[in-house]
Design a protein that fits this description.
The chain has 222 residues and is α/β, with parallel strands linked by helices. 44% of the residues lie in helices and 16% in strands. It has helices at residues 3-27, 46-54, 65-78, 95-101, 111-119, 146-155, 174-187, 200-205, 215-218, and strands at residues 36-40, 59-62, 83-86, 104-108, 125-129, 159-164, 191-193, 210-213. The longest helix is centred in the N-terminal third of the chain and has 25 residues, at 3-27. The protein starts with a helix and ends with a helix. The structure holds pyridoxal-5'-phosphate.
């Protein structure tokens, strides 16, 4: 595809997603400026990311530290205002690399990782990831552990801003978004990272302050 076409496509998709966020915010009587769009660029290279940067998007998400380290430093040099969010599971031995690259970490979910991030001098804004559907194979802490982990993370000096979750696939996500919002309210946490390409409007209606959108902006992943 010619560069000019890629530019129009990226700008058009970005406009669509922003319009969807605005529509959902209006329905919920919320201000759309309270919702951050995180463009999840995992598996996509600079050729796909640049058109979005040129269209004005500055907040991006990745799910692997090594992949982000390979492609983002050169892009950040050109666009220094870029803010990078880690949305995928983080191994404790990658904590120091993550802290160097990312301004926001969405996947804090266990005591060993809290310790590793604190030891790495983490100043990133952090979300506690909750396994909201209690699925055995998924990242995130159990619902019963949220309060204790939040306390531990704060005691370790992490800047805890909110809760993050990925609801179970293939079922209506709204009840899970509502449950995450309820937990956040109970804990006095202002931010909620929830909603992806298929359900970000629902998430915004239920209080998301961060939506993590990949394929609706970049197209299907190969
Ligand atoms: C890939 C990913 C997304 C984006 O998913 P899409 O369905 O492509 O929008 C959001 N959150 C996390 C944690 C992801 O890994």
């Amino acid at each position: 595809m010619a560069i000019a076409d890629a530019q129009v496509d990226a700008a058009g998709r970005l406009e669509n997603v922003r319009a969807g966020i605005a529509r959902a915010a209006r329905t919920a009587r919320r201000d759309a400026s309270g919702v951050t769009l995180v463009a999840v660029s995992k598996t996509f290279g600079a050729g796909d990311i640049l058109p979005l940067l040129e269209a004005g998007q500055r907040v991006f998400g990745e799910n692997r530290v090594a992949e982000a380290a390979a492609k983002w430093p050169a892009l950040v040099e050109r666009y220094p205002e870029v803010e990078l969010h880690l949305v995928g599971q983080l191994q404790s031995n990658k904590a120091a690399d993550a802290v160097r690259l990312f301004q926001v970490i969405h996947s804090v979910d266990r005591p060993s990782l809290i310790e590793a991030l604190a030891k790495a001098g983490c100043t990133a804004r952090c979300f506690l990831q909750v396994n909201i559907g209690e699925e055995p194979q998924k990242g995130g802490c159990g619902i019963a552990d949220v309060g204790r982990l939040l306390e531990q993370a704060r005691a370790a000096g992490l800047d805890m801003r909110g809760l993050m979750a990925v609801p179970p696939a293939g079922v209506e996500p709204a009840p899970y978004f509502a449950l995450l919002a309820k937990l956040g309210t109970e804990l006095g946490l202002p931010e909620l990272s929830m909603g992806m390409s298929g359900d970000y409007e629902t998430a915004v209606m239920l209080g998301a302050t961060c939506v993590r959108v990949g394929s609706a902006l970049f197209g299907e992943r190969g």
